TrEMBL record:
InterPro entries to which the protein is assigned, alphabetical: AKR, Aldo-Keto_reductase, NAD(P)_OxRdtase_dom_sf, NADP_OxRdtase_dom
GO molecular function annotation: oxidoreductase activity
SUPFAM superfamilies: NAD(P)-linked oxidoreductase
Organism this protein belongs to: Sphingomonas montanisoli
Protein name, per record: Aldo/keto reductase
Domain of life the protein comes from: Bacteria
Residue ranges of domain NADP-dependent oxidoreductase in the record: 14-307
Gene Ontology cellular-component terms listed: cytoplasm
Entry keywords, A to Z: Oxidoreductase
Gene3D superfamilies reported for this sequence: NADP-dependent oxidoreductase domain
Pfam families named among the record's database cross-references: Aldo_ket_red (PF00248)
Length: 331
């Protein structure tokens, strides 16, 4: 039996499903029927924490999750996000005003076909709006019964403290994996201090730590990895050398590289949960079996030394992408 972990008032399987890829961010998206089948398969095999957002596919992802699973609403904890939207020109717009958040919340509820959302995140900080005002708007959503718990995403430790002082924050969601260690600067410690659950997205490095990228990979239009420095020359070649060494460790451990990457994240702290994204039912099954991987202290130390912020080549984001997040960066 899988040991659960807590997010706000909910006890969940600590491996959830990031649903973004069904509608946004990557190429090779499945058709609607296949997507609906995959999402139902996730629930069938024990996933009970699903993550979407208003921004994914300009609302298409929320509509998909709602269409696929609203008839099974009592079988999973539902998370979504507000304040970040896609423009029709392909850019991104942030609206963290109380009015914008209230509107997006109602739109999320409508698209999902539900009367409340279990965990609703402030997807990005609006630089023109104090975080206290944005969190205040979400708190009013809680008071109205539209939100059960409030989360934040991609913000710094100091901003998390300010948000938590305004209204209790159940969770913060930020990228965290062997090759993205930024939360170790301060955020993980702050989460422990405040009792905030840390939700790790991209635990397999946007597919890199699952073997989805090699020297011949080309990125379809709209694949967010296309401009990211660590996925491109000259950085990619150096990172693939690390991946080969990572494969050898996984072989010795007796698991797949994706399972090893997920197990590492879960081993970092008992208050961490993670949401590997996939649209593939077989990968969902593979990811779930990361629960069976037990890492010794020696193995954890080996992995820490192999892939970290000093051994990975290339930055996490382009300058433009980085400007839209408020997380700490290594010097």
């Amino acid at each position: 039996m899988v040991e659960t972990r807590k997010v706000g008032q909910f006890e969940i399987n600590p491996i959830g499903v990031g649903c973004m890829g069904f509608s946004h961010g990557y190429g090779g998206r499945p058709d609607e029927a296949s997507a609906i089948a995959a999402l139902n398969h996730a629930i069938d095999i024990g996933y009970d924490f699903l993550d979407t957002a208003a921004a994914y596919g300009m609302g298409a992802n929320e509509r998909l999750v709602g269409k696929a699973l609203r008839h099974r609403r009592d079988e999973f904890t539902l998370a979504s996000k507000c304040a970040l939207g896609a423009t029709r020109e392909g850019g991104r717009a942030i609206d963290g005003t109380p009015e914008g958040i209230a509107l997006t919340l109602d739109q999320s509820l409508d698209r999902l076909g539900v009367d409340h959302i279990d965990l609703y995140y402030l997807h990005r900080l609006d630089p023109n709006v104090p975080i206290e005002e944005s969190i205040g708007a979400l708190a009013r959503g809680v008071e109205a019964g539209k939100i059960r718990s409030i989360g934040v995403s991609e913000i710094s430790s100091d901003l998390l403290r300010r948000a938590h002082a305004t209204h209790p924050i159940a969770a913060i969601q930020t990228e965290y994996s062997l090759w993205t260690r930024n939360p170790e600067i301060a955020l993980l410690d702050t989460c422990r201090e405040l009792g905030v659950t840390f939700v790790s997205f991209s635990p397999v490095g946007r597919g890199f730590l699952a073997g989805a990228v090699d020297a011949t990979t080309t990125y379809e239009q709209g694949d967010m990895r296309g401009p990211m420095p660590r996925f491109n020359a000259p950085n990619l070649a150096a990172n693939l050398v690390l991946l080969d060494r990572f494969r050898a460790v996984a072989s010795d451990q007796g698991c797949t590289i994706a399972q090893l990457a997920i197990a590492w994240v879960l081993a970092r702290d008992p208050a961490i949960v993670t949401i590997p994204g996939t649209t593939n039912a077989a990968h969902m099954e593979e990811n779930m079996r990361a629960h069976d991987v037990t890492l010794s202290d020696a193995r954890l130390a080996e992995l820490d030394a192999l892939i970290n912020q000093t051994t990975v080549s290339g930055s996490r984001y382009t300058a433009a992408m980085q400007s839209m997040v408020s997380t700490e960066q290594f010097a």
